[in-house]
Design a protein that fits this description.
87 residues, alpha+beta, three-stranded antiparallel β-sheet, 4 helices, disordered N terminus
Length: 87
Amino acid sequence: MNKRHQEIPTKILKDKRIKPEGKLIYSYIYAKGQDRIITDLNVGELQQVVKINNKGLKRNLERLEQLKYLIYKEYDTGMYTINLLGC
């Protein structure tokens, strides 16, 4: 495993346009999908790490998508497919 997969990209940590909650969500997704570009996520899985509901998660994912960090698609209520960009 090379070094860039061991930690979150500093680019997102320094980005002031993203709320700390969004950074935590991205770090969870990034850690889960280390060797994969596409990963599946459900809101219940993330609620164990961060206190968030589906609406808040969707808002954060939309913001991360606008900033070109990831692409997401909700295929069922609270179930997402995520494609990490620039990993």
